[in-house]
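Example 3.2
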Amino acid sequence: MNPLELLIAKQERLRKISSAYPVANNLSSAAISYQTDGAFLAPIYKDEKIWGSNCWFTHANWGSQSSSESKKLFTEVAAAEFEKGVRNFYVEILADDSEELQTWYELGFGQQHASGLLTELAPTKTDALIRDAGVADISRIIKVERELAIHQMKSPVFSAVQPDEESESANDWRELFESDNEDGFVVKVAEVNGEVVALSYGVSTEKSSLHSGLLRPENSATLAHATTLPEYRGKGVGKALASAVINDLKVNGFKEIVTDWRITNQLSSVTWPKLGFKTTLIRLHRAL
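Structure, written as tokens:
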């Protein structure tokens, strides 16, 4: 199979979950730097401040016809990229491809991040007040929003992503609330005894760099953020709030809902599948 045929076969496997995912119909051969008899890679390199010295096997830029070819490909890529100073390798694999996942585990990779597609929204229940957010909530929104980055900087996630500067966040939120909202943003908060204890928002995947290209279903939105203050976690508030955001996104006309989460964020890894998200893609990482 040639590189395009390998990519088409992989994408059709994803389209069995939802035909809203696009058809793979082109691949630039000029971008392919590595190729074996049955595998290829057109490497992607991202911001080293976030990802370290890196080389990516993203969903759309690599393919393989067998586990043995995947191993040959990585061996070739790792040798060459290591000489260039690369010490971090990332690979995206379809979540239902257990054989391919096992191949990369044997190459020393571990799970890092997951993407999911909503298949059936589970019922939720909370006594918290769930409502739309507005300009008057900005200071309280920022307080809650920062908790996600703070939580993920701790064990066992150890994310390098820092909370945004509060002044910058305030400006961004004000600009959003005062805009025409052409991207279908839905922003909601949950209140308990007058205190904002949770925040969630969603938006068209047109605004998402992660859910893009072959990973962007037609007419879709992403549940882009969900955070609950630590003392209110595990009480169903976050799930109920996310559910309300999803329902509004559907009312706005979006047919498919996606999201993503750090696998080592144990709260997210439990919450989103329970809410009805089917894991579609897993990102693995190996540091040398």
